[in-house]
Amino acid sequence: MTLRVDDLRVHYRTLRGEVKAIDGVTFDVGDGEILGLAGESGCGKTTLGKSLIRMDGRMRLAGGAAELDGEELPIGDDHRMNPFRFTKVSIIPQYSMSAMNPTRRIGRMVAELLRSRGRQLDTDELGRRLDLVELPREVLQRYPIELSGGMKQRMVMVISTLLDPSLLIADEITSALDVSTQKAVARTLVEFRDRGFVRSMIFITHDISLTYQIADTIMVMYAGKLAEKAPAGVIVGEPRHPYTRLLISSLPEVGVRYTDRRLAGIPGEPPSLLDPPAGCRFRDRCPLAFDKCAEEPPVVEVEPGHHVACWKA
Amino acid sequence: MRRYFGRKLLVYGLTFLVAVTINWMIPRFMPGDPVQSMLARANVSQPAAVEAMRAHYTNLFGLDLPLWKQYGNFWAALFQGDLGTSIWLFPTPVTDVIMRAVPYTLALLIPAILLSWWAGNRFGAFAARRKWLDNTVLPIGYVLTATPYMWLAILLAWGLGIVAGVFPVSGGYSFAMRPNLSWEFVGDLALHWFLPFVSLFLVAFGGWAIGMRNMIIYELEADYSTYLSSLGAPQRLIRRYAFRNAVLPQITGLALQLGVLVAGALVTEIVFSYPGLGHLILQAIQNQDFFLLQGAFLFIVVGVLAANFIIDVVYVLVDPRTRTGMGGEAA
């Protein structure tokens, strides 16, 4: 087992109180597993990804623990977490386009970053990885501004995985790319895993169809909680949680003419996490809601590897 | 690259042309007649003699020609380095009068500008994100930068000069001394230089420190800083990058502030009766000395333009983005 997260609670400090962005999430990611993390905007995907590597100033660990390769991951302690970053846990951020210092040549920046972590730059290995993502080796002599968006994205992917981390968090990395590039990036991530550059991966996206193409397991989150987690095929083929079902059914299908039948979304919006309602958080939008939903549904393993938090599942 | 500098030079040339023209116009359209005041100074009572003298002076300064000819002559003389004759210190040439004052002004301005910029940036970068310093020293920075130059100058002159009696409050050197190359004289010069320098330095320092502090905070919030922190890079490296990137707008700021600093130096010189250009301008205005005023302004305009040009060049050298932008344009 690579990563084990137990009852993680992460809150944001705001002037109006604590926003419970992650409210008790338990899951694990196995060796060589790619976990797709899906859900709509504001459900806590990015917060979850960030909290596993570096919490920003407004975030607070309110409870829970994480364990990586059998070792405790001190996620609540910025200082103690530092040795793990980059070497054990790494991230490809949402903002790859602006992740590199604009006034340093890329090669020099990478060398300085590695030196600051007490590592030497292995130029040959770096070159091989650039070849793999089809970047010319000359990019190291260039400034980030001279690269296209897709090139920057690939460069950041190479930098983030340079020290072969156990866990890679890929946070919405395809959101800013066009569809053809999205697919190439997703395939590169699988390639990275297959070659052992990263042991396992959390692939965060709001795009379930893309997740389905590369993820082994998909975890759907809703309002800071786990809704459903199952192998990718099961989530798409036979989802049990009403939210997952609605999410899947709101995807366009090939061969259907949407001029006749309007594509349905999920009406309503997620509850405020400042003071979330008791019981199931999807209750207000759920077509199947009944009295019991006023009570919070526990996460149940309905089949091996298939976890659902719903009374009706 | 060449096109860039060619365009820059053209813009600077045009600015120079306009500035010199305005500079020539201002004293001529100012109320008052310098020849009249010279005649009054001469104190001659015979009307015939007064008329003769008036004709002589008017001819001497070229004021009897039509305006467009005066303007043409002015440019012609300018390229020969001739700025005319001072009225106030008649018959010393304006160039000599200015050259006597320039070393004082430069000795005040150059260290004040460079040191305040350097120290302000260092200090602002250091104070950013350090609660204690941020809360105590930055309000002082705000007060300093909001202080008018001359007011701070007066405060310093009063506090350190009159009350404490440590520094002299007026002149470039003691009245009891004659300029010579001795340690005693140099020490005396430095003593007189100190207060005007400090008042210029402090006001500018506050501005730079605040600007840098805000820029550094902005850079530390930037994506590349967050990314480096996520990869566990030490604060030292992140701050180094942030500083370098934050310095770029500060260089532009220096170009913008240059004029303000020069103006500040002029009023500061007046407060301390420091024998630089500012003092000279005041005298020129009081004596309706067109030519001196014109010459002093011209010198300042040329100085500011030259300094701006240097900053432009430096900016290209330090910011790769402007350089690659130019490369892309050429390709």
Automatic annotation (TrEMBL), chain A:
PROSITE patterns, alphabetically? ABC_TRANSPORTER_1, ABC_TRANSPORTER_2
Name the InterPro entries for this protein: AAA+_ATPase, ABC_transporter-like_ATP-bd, ABC_transporter-like_CS, Oligopep_ABC_C, P-loop_NTPase
Q: What keywords sit in the KW lines?
A: ATP-binding, Nucleotide-binding, Transport
Q: Which residues form the ABC transporter domain?
A: 3-248
User: What are the transmembrane regions?
Assistant: none
Note whether ATP-binding occurs among the keywords. Answer: yes
Q: Does the record's keyword annotation contain Cell inner membrane?
A: no
**SUPFAM superfamilies from the UniProt entry:** P-loop containing nucleoside triphosphate hydrolases
A Gene Ontology biological process term: peptide transport
Output the Gene Ontology terms for molecular function.
Answer: ATP binding; ATP hydrolysis activity
* PANTHER family according to UniProt: MALTOSE ABC TRANSPORTER, ATP-BINDING PROTEIN (PTHR43067:SF3), OLIGOPEPTIDE/DIPEPTIDE ABC TRANSPORTER, ATPASE SUBUNIT (PTHR43067)
UniProt name for this protein: Peptide/nickel transport system ATP-binding protein
Annotated organism of origin: Streptosporangium subroseum
From TrEMBL, chain B:
> Which SUPFAM superfamilies does the annotation name?
MetI-like
Can you tell which superkingdom this protein's organism belongs to?
A: Bacteria
Signal sequence range: none
> Which of UniProt's keywords are assigned here?
Membrane, Transmembrane, Transmembrane helix, Transport
**Protein localization:** Cell membrane; Membrane
Q: Membrane topology per the record?
A: Multi-pass membrane protein
Q: Where are the transmembrane segments?
A: 9-26, 101-119, 140-169, 189-210, 246-272, 292-318
Residues covered by the ABC transmembrane type-1 domain:
102-311
Is Transport one of the keywords? yes
Q: Does the keyword Magnesium apply?
A: no
- Coiled-coil-forming residues are none
Broad class of where this protein is predominantly found:
membrane
A GO cellular component term found in this entry reads: plasma membrane
User: What are the GO BP annotations of this UniProt entry?
Assistant: transmembrane transport
Question: By its UniProt entry, which InterPro entries does this protein fall under?
Answer: MetI-like, MetI-like_sf
Question: Which PANTHER family did the record assign?
Answer: OLIGOPEPTIDE TRANSPORT SYSTEM PERMEASE PROTEIN
To which protein family does this belong? Answer: Belongs to the binding-protein-dependent transport system permease family.
Question: What name has this protein been given in UniProt?
Answer: Peptide/nickel transport system permease protein
The organism encoding this protein is Streptosporangium subroseum
